């Protein structure tokens, strides 16, 4: 059976909301004036009813929007902006504070509702923060302050120092904790709800119309999280604190009686230290190694250690490359991994991202004879034929000259462009099919032989391709890592998608 070359454009692994994918993030006109009928965009519409909504909420959204600079690269900013435009705005529209202007507020909201994030977007952004927390061993308390500090005991340097801080509010932390709580993920719910409770205590007595939760809500969810985790003593303490603020709550009063009875029946529960286990949703056996490679970039040999690893100009004996040879950097000899710097221009990268943007859909994986969504692959992807635009034809010619492989169908798949959004990732996997039932075997091209992966954008922090069995991870910059596919397992790779802390795209070609 013939072999195929796969080209996949990895729209930078990570965490960026762009104006192409979310038109509502585009910057508003310099002066957004109230409009009697209709709105040019969500921010203009919000500006048009600014006198009707609490000025505090309007200013919060305005500050976040001005901080995007066209794309919300900082995951904390992206999450906050999605939350303001989803649950927060809805809470304002339906609040008692807005009762005198209900009709105008609802009308303004409905004008742009179809362009706003929905709850699935908000839930996905919250889960993305949890993935970043895990993969990069980040402190929840640090994230709440807007900084990317490592959790205590990791002995790793801070991941990223943003130029502008975007701290999270108590309600922001509460929502992340509640998303984890609703999934029965008490490992994450406890950490985020602890931070929410801490922040709500500081601001107790203040009430923001847009908030979803309160100190009592956070205490309620945190107490039950601790109970489910086996810490009955702390669940009791938090429930008693709840009754201090709301002594008439009968449900919590019953919980207090239940916890007290359990502690009397089993006194050892009062002293028991419960070690929370992080949920292994995808049951990844190599998770620790994968995350270590994402955090530390694994073993990175340098030229003076291994003289055979060097940089050079290469033509591959191709007339196409004689006048403009490619810049090769050897990363690893066995397995062979090389980076080709400046393989595409910024203009070409932007053109490809623009062509793919309207067609991006949730990425799927092969499951025997089916293709389905999976938690271990979080991204959106689109396929581009070479008939779409001459830029793809030119890129294909360059890849052919570099590899010596025929990448025209059916010998290769079409160009795949992948956007990892906020905290996306692709856990360790093989690009080639490992089962005869795979859809790849029904294609005329046969199984995959090689992958050319092109980073369409760089990132400010995180982001890498981890080769698990080679103990190697390659950081994200605009160039092409290229390695042949084999079925020995050496090329099982993981995209530290939660990895690209700040960036927005990649592309790939498989043969």
UniProtKB/TrEMBL annotation:
Q: Where is the Fe2OG dioxygenase domain?
A: 411-511
Q: Does the keyword S-adenosyl-L-methionine apply?
A: no
Could you tell me which InterPro entries the record lists for this protein?
A: Oxoglu/Fe-dep_dioxygenase_dom (IPR005123), P4H_N (IPR013547), P4HA-like (IPR045054), Pro_4_hyd_alph (IPR006620), TPR-like_helical_dom_sf (IPR011990), TPR_P4H (IPR059068)
- What's in the keyword line of the UniProt record? Dioxygenase, Endoplasmic reticulum, Glycoprotein, Iron, Metal-binding, Oxidoreductase, Signal, TPR repeat, Vitamin C
Q: Which SMART domains match?
A: P4Hc
Q: List the Pfam families.
A: P4Ha_N (PF08336), TPR_P4H (PF23558)
Enzyme Commission number(s) of this protein: 1.14.11.2
Q: Which PROSITE patterns match?
A: FE2OG_OXY
Where is this chain primarily localised? endoplasmic reticulum
UniProt GO MF annotations: iron ion binding; L-ascorbic acid binding; procollagen-proline 4-dioxygenase activity
Q: Which SUPFAM superfamilies match?
A: TPR-like
Q: Where is the signal peptide?
A: 1-19
The reaction(s) annotated as catalysed by this protein in its Swiss-Prot or TrEMBL entry are: L-prolyl-[collagen] + 2-oxoglutarate + O2 = trans-4-hydroxy-L-prolyl-[collagen] + succinate + CO2
Q: Where in the cell is it found?
A: Endoplasmic reticulum lumen
One Gene Ontology cellular component term attached to this UniProt record is:
endoplasmic reticulum lumen
Query: Which prosthetic group or cofactor does it need?
Result: Fe(2+); L-ascorbate
> What family is reported?
Belongs to the P4HA family.
Quaternary structure (record): Heterotetramer of two alpha-3 chains and two beta chains (the beta chain is the multi-functional PDI).
What PANTHER family has UniProt attached to this entry? PROLYL 4-HYDROXYLASE ALPHA SUBUNIT (PTHR10869), PROLYL 4-HYDROXYLASE SUBUNIT ALPHA-3 (PTHR10869:SF223)
Q: What does this protein do?
A: Catalyzes the post-translational formation of 4-hydroxyproline in -Xaa-Pro-Gly- sequences in collagens and other proteins.
This one is known as: Prolyl 4-hydroxylase subunit alpha-3
Q: Which organism is it from?
A: Terrapene triunguis
| Gene designation per UniProt | P4HA3
């Amino acid at each position: 059976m013939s072999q195929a070359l796969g080209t996949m454009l990895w729209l930078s692994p990570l965490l960026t909301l762009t104006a192409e994918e979310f038109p509502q993030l585009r910057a508003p006109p310099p002066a957004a004036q109230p409009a009697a009928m209709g709105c040019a965009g969500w921010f203009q519409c919000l500006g048009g009813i600014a006198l009707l909504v609490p000025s505090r909420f309007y200013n919060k959204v305005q500050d976040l929007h001005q901080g995007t600079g066209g794309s919300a690269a900082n995951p904390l900013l992206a999450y906050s902006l999605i939350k303001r435009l989803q649950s927060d705005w809805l809470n304002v529209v339906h609040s008692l504070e807005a009762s005198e202007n209900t009709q105008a507020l609802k009308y303004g909201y409905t004008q742009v509702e179809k362009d706003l994030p929905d709850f699935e977007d908000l839930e996905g952004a919250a889960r993305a923060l949890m993935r970043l927390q895990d993969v990069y061993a980040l402190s929840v308390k640090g994230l709440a302050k807007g900084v990317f500090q490592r959790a205590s005991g990791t002995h790793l340097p801070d991941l990223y120092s943003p130029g502008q801080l975007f701290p999270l509010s108590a309600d922001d932390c509460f929502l992340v904790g509640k998303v984890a709580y609703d999934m029965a993920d008490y490992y994450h719910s406890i950490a985020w709800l602890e931070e929410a409770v801490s922040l709500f205590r500081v601001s107790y007595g203040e009430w923001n119309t847009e908030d979803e939760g309160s100190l009592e809500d956070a205490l309620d969810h945190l107490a039950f999280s601790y109970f489910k985790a086996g810490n009955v003593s702390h669940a009791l303490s938090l429930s008693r604190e709840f009754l201090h603020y709301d002594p008439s709550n009968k449900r919590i009063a019953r919980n207090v009686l239940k916890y007290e009875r359990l502690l009397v029946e089993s006194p050892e529960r009062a002293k028991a230290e419960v070690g929370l286990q992080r949920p292994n949703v995808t049951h990844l056996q190599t998770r620790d190694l994968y995350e270590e490679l994402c955090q530390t970039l694994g073993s990175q040999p340098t030229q003076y250690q291994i003289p055979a690893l060097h940089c050079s100009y290469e033509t591959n004996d191709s007339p196409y490359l004689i006048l403009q040879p490619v810049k090769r950097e050897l990363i690893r000899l066995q397995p062979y991994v090389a980076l080709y710097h400046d393989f595409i221009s910024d203009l070409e990268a932007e053109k490809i991202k623009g062509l793919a943007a309207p067609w991006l859909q949730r990425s799927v994986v092969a499951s025997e004879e089916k293709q389905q969504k999976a938690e271990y692959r979080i991204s959106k992807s689109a396929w581009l034929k070479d008939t779409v635009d001459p830029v793809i034809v030119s890129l294909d010619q360059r890849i052919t000259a570099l590899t010596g492989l025929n990448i025209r169908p059916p010998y290769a798949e079409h160009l795949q462009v992948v956007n990892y959004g906020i905290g996306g990732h692709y856990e360790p996997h093989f690009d080639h099919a490992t089962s005869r039932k795979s859809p790849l075997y029904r294609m005329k091209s046969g199984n995959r032989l090689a992958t050319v992966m092109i980073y369409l954008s760089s990132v400010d922090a995180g982001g890498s391709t981890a080769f698990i069995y080679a103990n190697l991870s390659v950081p994200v910059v605009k160039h092409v890592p290229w390695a042949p596919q084999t079925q020995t397992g050496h090329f099982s790779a993981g995209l530290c998608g939660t990895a690209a802390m700040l960036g927005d795209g990649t592309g790939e070609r498989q043969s």
